[in-house]
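Encode chain A's predicted structure.
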Amino acid sequence: MTEEKLRPKEVAHPPRILMLYGSLRERSYSRLTTEEAARLLMGMGAEVKIFNPSGLPLPDDAPETHPKVVELRELVLWSEGMVWCSPERHGAMTGIMKTQIDWIPLTSGAVRPSQGKTLAVMQVSGGSQSFNAVNQMRILGRWMRMITIPNQSS
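Encoded structure for chain A:
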């Protein structure tokens, strides 16, 4: 095998990062935190898209052809890495955050759309300093075969 075949392919575009947040409130701190992280990532040269979860149905309560499901799945396929940010509610990530994750398919043909993508996790807490939401998201990311970075933010 020649040395040329062993070299990784050069990427001709900026890193593609999909950002998900877990609150629908008008003044959502997880959305604001996500927007600030997106600003920083774009400043470092990444191409960033933020998915707005408003209108996303519960899993199994709508077909996969629902426009919000299609939008989310297309963004997952487009992305090379993701950032997930959720508030902590009742000691866990929010339902809307889990709903987004649950709509990401485990397989698409013979491919797992999340496999090999980088994942960063963040949470916003109102009060006590806990890491339950980021710990749960980290476990889900690893289970989805994502490369979950060791640093986390709360």
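The beta strands are 16-21, 47-51, 81-89, 92-93, 118-124, 147-153.
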